[in-house]
Design goal:
- This protein is 94% helix and 0% strand.
- The longest helix is centred in the last third of the chain and has 72 residues.
- The protein is rod-shaped, with a radius of gyration of 38 Å.
């Protein structure tokens, strides 16, 4: 009777041990996969951040060039000129102006358009600056996305590693229990 109970306990311990070992193998694969994913995400994030830094340096150089050109040019900021043109055109369309007033406004619009045309190089710099700014924003969003994915992957890695350590201890305890039960079984066999 005692021999049968010990045998059943030993079988149960070995079955539990086998199940835990399978789970440990699965966790080990998940940990290895997470580590590889982390390395890929980290490299990707760092590459995007480096590209972003490079574009920021280009944008700074472009802003310096804009400042120099703006200070030398009597034209001023092309965007402000364009805004003034649109505002005056809207005024002509929406307000009831006398002939002389309309003539003055139209003359002013013509002068502003000439100034705007003269600021071609400056306008190109503003457009390049705006394009760089958009590229920087896109790269930052991608880098932030990679960083978020990396943090999630690290969290999953920590959880898997914690589970792995816990199951390793359980497996070790079950193995020891199985060995004790085997020794007890062999002792009961010798007694009978």
């Amino acid at each position: 009777q005692e021999h049968k109970e010990l045998s059943q306990q030993r079988e149960q311990a070995y079955k539990s041990f086998s199940d835990i070992v399978q789970e440990l193998r699965r966790l080990k694969q998940a940990i290895s996969g997470a580590k590889a994913k982390q390395n890929t995400l980290r490299d990707s994030r760092n590459k995007l951040n480096n590209e972003c830094r490079s574009l920021i340096q280009q944008a700074k150089a472009l802003n310096e060039e804009k400042k120099k050109l703006s200070s030398k040019s009597p034209v001023g900021d092309p965007n402000k000129i364009l805004f003034a043109i649109k505002k005056l055109e809207q005024k002509v369309e929406t307000e009831a102006l006398s002939f002389d007033e309309e003539k003055k406004v139209m003359r002013k619009i013509g002068d502003l358009k000439k100034r705007y045309g003269a600021s071609e190089q400056l306008r190109l710099l503003y457009m390049q600056s705006r394009d760089l700014s958009k590229k920087i924003d896109v790269l930052r969003k991608e880098a932030d996305s990679r960083h978020t994915q990396l943090k999630e992957s690290l969290q999953q890695y920590k959880e898997n590693l914690s589970q792995f350590m816990k199951l390793s201890k359980e497996a070790s305890a079950l193995r020891d229990q199985g060995q004790q039960l085997r020794q007890q079984l062999s002792a009961t066999r010798k007694e009978t």
